[in-house]
């Protein structure tokens, strides 16, 4: 618990620097592209179109288009869940390798190591805000106007930031010591896309027992929460309060464990390079 408090304190004391470094990270990643940061929106748009064509049109009903999901057109249902995945996937992947790819530069600075995954995650969060805003605007013209349920969006944004940061403390520490961990993380992230209710509605296709097992995945909670908010389906975190308790319990366990191994091994990070 002492390690968790130490990491938490470092996040607050270094927040201004984390914010500045995250903006620098975002700009530097796109400085050599003619379209710059527009690629942060173009890439998700291309992928959404591909997923919609393959899963919503090509593989269902003999190519006649996929049926609605709970009276919601499949494309809208897909987009409502996919919008947060475009943050989850790069945030997990890049934060897991954030320490060992930047430690030589940052070891010369008065900068807590635990803030390195933080600013990398935050740099991926800015495009997510833009993409979410564009999605909300599109939904206004598709029959899903802004509703009171949008008030839960900030809660789910904080939730996804919390779980990814907790995971990043574990993966970035292990990846620095054992490079193979990064490859495992990439493989797991690809698998998570199909183990989350993004491309298909699990409740209609799987048994109740399998759905319960799938819900052990914390990103199931995040995706369904975003979808409930954007489509105005209800107060997900209240209506599924037991799932909410499980989610935050898991985040707490991951954060305490991640903080412990991070604080224990970070003084030796340079030795693993």
Automatic annotation (TrEMBL):
It is a multi-pass membrane protein. GO terms for molecular function: ABC-type transporter activity. Keywords: Cell membrane, Membrane, Transmembrane, Transmembrane helix, Transport. The chain crosses the membrane at residues 34-54, 74-95, 116-141, 153-171, 183-200, 245-263. Residues 35-265 form the ABC transmembrane type-2 domain. InterPro entries: ABC2_TM (IPR013525), ABC2_TM_bact-type (IPR047817). It is found in: Cell membrane. Its main location: membrane. One of its GO terms (biological process) is lipopolysaccharide transport. The keyword Transmembrane helix applies. Belongs to the ABC-2 integral membrane protein family. This is Transport permease protein.
């Amino acid at each position: 618990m002492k390690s968790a408090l130490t990491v938490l304190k470092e996040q607050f004391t270094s927040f201004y620097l984390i914010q500045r470094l995250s903006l620098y990270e975002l700009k530097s990643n796109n400085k050599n592209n003619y379209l710059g940061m527009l690629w942060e929106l173009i890439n998700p748009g291309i992928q959404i179109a591909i997923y919609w064509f393959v899963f919503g049109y090509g593989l269902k009903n003999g190519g006649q288009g996929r049926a609605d999901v709970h009276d919601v057109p499949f494309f809208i249902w897909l987009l409502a869940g996919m919008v947060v995945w475009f943050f989850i996937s790069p945030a997990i992947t890049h934060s897991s390798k954030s320490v060992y790819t930047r430690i030589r530069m940052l070891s010369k600075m008065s900068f807590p190591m635990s803030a390195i995954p933080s600013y990398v995650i935050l740099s991926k969060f800015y495009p997510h805000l833009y993409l979410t805003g564009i999605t909300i605007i599109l939904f206004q013209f598709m029959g899903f106007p802004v509703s009171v349920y949008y008030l839960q969006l900030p809660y789910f944004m904080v939730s996804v930031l919390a779980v990814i940061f907790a995971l990043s403390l574990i993966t970035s520490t292990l990846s620095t010591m054992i490079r193979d961990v990064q490859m495992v993380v990439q493989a797991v992230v690809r698998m998570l896309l199909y183990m989350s209710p993004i491309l298909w509605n699990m409740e209609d296709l799987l048994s109740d027992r399998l759905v319960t097992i799938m819900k052990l995945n914390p990103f199931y909670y995040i995706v369904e929460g975003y979808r409930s908010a954007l489509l105005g389906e209800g107060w997900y975190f209240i209506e599924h309060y037991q799932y909410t308790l499980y989610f935050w319990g898991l985040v707490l366990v991951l954060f305490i464990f991640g903080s412990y191994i991070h604080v224990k091994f970070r003084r030796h990070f340079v030795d693993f390079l």
